[in-house]
Write a structure and sequence with these properties.
There is one protein chain. It contains nine helices and ten strands. By secondary structure, the chain is an alpha+beta fold.
């Protein structure tokens, strides 16, 4: 299993708590706002906004909240102006980490992200130092209601590149521009989509075969993900299911 996928799934399950749900809502609303500002409010022509709109609705963000975010993005309502910024670094055990943020203050966010790396046994790196270890892909996760061969055939027909077993779900990868088309095709074939998003997928992984090593890496990843300005955290670790089960219990 890769850090970008099953770790995110674990976080999603913990997100049922009210405080975590509120934080998730705030991050999704910020992403909707930026997508609207950069590409306009038309869901048909703005693929980024369409993807974020779908993601927000799947997380049960209220429609009026989404609409206000779109209006702030297009300038119809006043609001804070957020800009994207990313950071690269290393977690313990040499795990590569990419952090995507939306912020209204680059200096503050940069200092706080650097501090989180340092306090949790990691280190910040120069731009480009670890990003070469990831590829930007469309990632669709599916419930495991069909057999692998059947799902693989459907995925390839939909235009996907690959299918992998990610524990309790299937993970389909494709080129980013094909994400919405692949998702629509899989849903039309009767498959249940859990999520569909553009993500950084690691090209190589670092195995964390001890509970102690896994815990130290996850401590940093969790701390980064809990920061209000952080939208996504990607890491190239690999944790055996039995260790992950102990950490999630």
């Amino acid at each position: 299993m890769s850090g970008h996928s099953k770790w995110a799934t674990t976080k999603y399950r913990k997100g049922a708590q009210d405080s975590a749900r509120s934080k998730l809502f705030a991050k999704l609303v910020r992403q909707v706002e930026v997508a609207a500002r950069e590409g306009g409010r038309d869901l048909t022509s703005n693929a980024a906004l369409r993807a974020m709109f779908t993601k927000a609705r799947e997380a049960s963000v209220p429609m009026d909240t989404i609409e206000r975010a779109i209006k702030r993005g297009t300038g119809e309502l006043e609001g804070v102006r957020y800009e994207p910024v990313s950071y690269e670094g290393y977690a313990p055990q040499g795990v590569a980490v990419l952090v995507e943020c939306l912020t209204d203050n680059r200096n503050r966010t940069g200092a706080e992200v650097r501090s989180l790396f340092t306090r949790n046994g990691g280190s910040i790196a120069e731009p480009g130092a670890v990003s070469w270890q990831f590829e930007r892909k469309g990632v669709v996760t599916l419930t495991k209601e069909r057999e692998e061969d059947e799902v693989m055939e459907m995925a390839l027909e939909a235009g996907a590149e690959d299918l992998s077993d990610d524990g309790d779900q299937w993970e389909v990868t494709c080129e980013p521009p094909e994400l919405q088309a692949v998702r629509a095709s899989l849903e039309a074939a009767g498959l249940q989509v859990r999520s569909a998003e553009i993500a950084f997928v690691p090209t190589t992984t670092v195995p964390l075969d001890s509970e102690g090593h896994a815990r130290t890496v996850l401590r940093l990843v969790d701390a980064l993900d809990d920061h209000d300005d952080v939208q996504s955290v990607y890491a190239n670790f690999e944790i055996p299911d039995e260790i992950l089960a102990k950490l999630s219990s």
